[in-house]
Amino acid sequence: MTHGDASENGDGPAVCETEREPDPSDSLRTFGAVVQALREHAGLSRAEFAELVRFSKHTVESVELGRRMPDDSFVERAEEALGNTGALRRSARYLTRGEVGLAAWFRQWARLEKIAVSLCTYECRLVPGLLQSEGYARAVFEGTVPVAPDAKLDGYMAKRMERQRMLFERPSTPFSFIVEEHVFHRRFGEPPQRRELLDHVLELTTPRNVTLQIVPFKAGLHACLDGPLQLLETPRGQRLAYSEGQQNGRLISGLDEVRLLHQRYDTLRSQALNAKDSRGLLEQLRGEL
User: Fold this and answer.
1) Is the link from the previous residue into 22 a cis peptide, with omega within 30 of 0?
2) For 56-87, how does the pLDDT look when each residue is reduced to its tens digit (9 = 90+)?
3) Rg of the chain over CA atoms, in angstroms?
């Protein structure tokens, strides 16, 4: 995993240099830098330090680069190996994993979303986060394994709903969504909750800059069968892609791969229902509830 950043003024240089997630929190970066500085001051290589703390060299590197949350045993052994100054014990109290409500591997992409001049999303598993109703989002979070603690659910919900504001706040930014029909047939909660979801999706996709296309059952095999996909373009004209699986996500910046994924998305646009027919299908599904 590597660290990268995207400021509100454009992409950080790491966007071009890395394809892996997650981006660490500032506290993890700072703690890692302190560990590295103390280790180097003690004249220890990473391999030598790893032996002293009884962790792998890879783990030491991950902690120093802010990619990994150190556990208590790492902190204690590092303190002993580096002079017992107390600096690591004290600083470890303030470690945080990053933004509440976003998976670690998604944070860099979420920041890029905020500055994108266009955003495209293909989803075949569930309703995209930017279109989820509160009831649907809560059902998704409550169904996660391991179970999300009640104390954190409100934070997750707030972050999910906050991301949706960009659809209204950026009326000149084109947002394109292509979603498999079966996603809207999947049952959750009671009929009123499912109607609320369909109403919410219809409302969010009403503005002219937001387009929803549905891939109907009858479409058969199509160009994006490899899985969910997101594409965006930055203010500097850089095109990036993002794919996500079980407990991981991948930011893609390679020109050839991004070009291929754009071609697949463009092909899927022609295979999906147009925006008018897609809205008609959602309205039909709502009427059947």
Assistant:
1) yes
2) 988 899 899 887 888 888 999 999 999 999 98
3) 22
